[in-house]
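A reminder before we start the practical. When you read a complex entry, don't treat the lines as separate problems. The point of joint prediction is that each chain is placed relative to the others, so the output describes one connected object in space. Small molecules and nucleic acid strands, if listed, are placed in the same frame. In the example below there are three entries. Take a minute to note the order of the lines before looking further.
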Amino acid sequence: MEIKRINPSPRWSDATVFNGTAYFVEVADDPSVDMLGQIRQILTQAEDSLLTVKSNKSRLISVTIYVTDFANFDVLNREWEAWLPQGCAPSRACIKAELADPAYLAEIAFIAASDQDE
Amino acid sequence: MEIKRINPSPRWSDATVFNGTAYFVEVADDPSVDMLGQIRQILTQAEDSLLTVKSNKSRLISVTIYVTDFANFDVLNREWEAWLPQGCAPSRACIKAELADPAYLAEIAFIAASDQDE
Amino acid sequence: MEIKRINPSPRWSDATVFNGTAYFVEVADDPSVDMLGQIRQILTQAEDSLLTVKSNKSRLISVTIYVTDFANFDVLNREWEAWLPQGCAPSRACIKAELADPAYLAEIAFIAASDQDE
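Here is the predicted structure of the whole assembly.
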């Protein structure tokens, strides 16, 4: 069984798909903005990533959310819940962690169901 | 292939199952107690979650353990090892992280084999 | 479907394989050395782990990298990119976190494609 990789760079792939399961990680493309702006970017970027792996936001399996400050937790949750289709929430872990760029306020690792192999 | 979701809320599902693999995350339902109490709750809750996805604690594949203080590491490990059936330990990562509720002392993300699809 | 476990101890298995997907976590066997030494150990150990699950470093699906200090980020990335075969990078998350042994400077959780079941 082959691994499909979207935009492999020397450091990471934008997404990988194996055995019907897609893996991708998002941080805001423009981290100069506040949490609201970053979360909206991350969720929009995630929709694009889901499209590239023949999935969509109703097919999330698991997410791990890293935030740098729980003061941003309410914004995260409000945007997250508004974005998710009803009845389609994945399993979710959420922890506080510093991220590779101090401007990043959030990073989300997604696992989703994909029709890439079919 | 469909995703099965256990108790989907607007924010997360208690568990998801896809392609024979189950994903769920536990924090103590009652975080007013110490690490010993929280870990025991988490492991008991995990048994319930495993049951809902037609799995059990002998079928864990991978866990990621977040603890807020490594002073609690010995308690975690003692309870963890006492709980796991012999020869059935999953792959395990363990890191220190602050969690969404300051009362939480641990959060565990589980991946398990499931007979849900069969 | 069975889970295959490599060297199960009471606390963890060195690797698990389920449904063609392998999970394993590495920290440096000898953490007395600096980041360069630890990363090289981790990547060498990962090659051994990949071998035991009938995989190799061209078949990584996803990694989660925990570093204790982003001052070591450049060393990590240089070694990581030198180690990965071209065009084979996995999805990658990277966060800062304290690890179970204060001597550990990095911990990497790997998910890889495996031919173990075939």
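Discuss with your neighbour: The CA atoms of residues 36 and 75 of chain B lie 6 Å apart. What might explain this?
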